[in-house]
Amino acid sequence: MNGMSVSYRRGLMGAVLLGFLPLAACQSTGPVADVAAIDTAQGSPENIASLTAVIDRAPGQPEGYNIRGTAYGRGGQYKQALADFDKALQLNPNYYQAYANRGLIHRYMNNQSQAIADYTRAIQLNPNYDVAYIGRGNVYRLAGQIDQAYADFQKAIELDTTDPRAYHNRGLILQQRGQHAQAIDDFSKAISLRPTAPEPYNGRGLSYAAQGDDDNAFTDFNTSIRLNGSIAESWANQALIYERKGDRAKAQKSYARAVQLDPQYQPAKDGLARTGGSAG
């Protein structure tokens, strides 16, 4: 499972200060960061009915419950997902994938201790399961336990994961620590693994900007917008570069777009106020 509700998009990192202007925080959204918009089709009655028919034909097989639980989770039906993962684990207490999937649901529901416990159990059952390290690392990062998060992402990378989330999220921590050259390397690796995900372009752009490389930062923010024009952070970051270049009109327009997409996104609101715009 790679989905997550939009409410978890905010507050993952503090703003990076660049001179007098606050650079919009790099939010961890979309598939690279183990977050995505709810896919209602996954939890549609038709899809659930089809998966239920599979379970009815083999009620003693845990895989069917795990698959249906995944569909429920991606459809935002978290209680039903938990029930299915519980059943899968009742049938097979060593089903490490079901532990990791249930951990993700607990994370959606902000049950951090339960999420960590499930991911940890998955790792105990399979110490080479990179997905569980990445999932637990995200829970630690959301909880502000940065050192533990870094260790989990590092472990997944040492296991030769091909999951771009490990590099993207380690890059976010390196960025938070001010290690921008290393962060750029990690974001670039994430991009090479999944070039169509906008989030690592946003992250890399922030680190380029922190190094004073506004041209590469601007290119990355524009690419992020091209890949997904509905992310407020991308527009706010683009606006910041316009602002730093002295183009207040374009900056104001981009800040306004960011506020339209996310009226609660403070860097965009502050930028709009600085450039003389109005959120109303």
TrEMBL record:
The keyword Cell membrane does not apply. It holds the Pfam family TPR_11. GO terms for cellular component: cell outer membrane. One of its GO terms (biological process) is receptor-mediated virion attachment to host cell. Keywords: Repeat, Signal, TPR repeat, Transferase. TPR repeats lie at residues 62-95, 96-129, 130-163, 164-197, 232-265. InterPro entries: TPR-like_helical_dom_sf, TPR_2, TPR_rpt, Ycf3. Residues 1-24 form the signal peptide. GO terms for molecular function: transferase activity. SMART domains: TPR (SM00028). This is GlcNAc transferase. It comes from Limoniibacter endophyticus. The lineage of its organism: Bacteria, Pseudomonadati, Pseudomonadota, Alphaproteobacteria, Hyphomicrobiales.
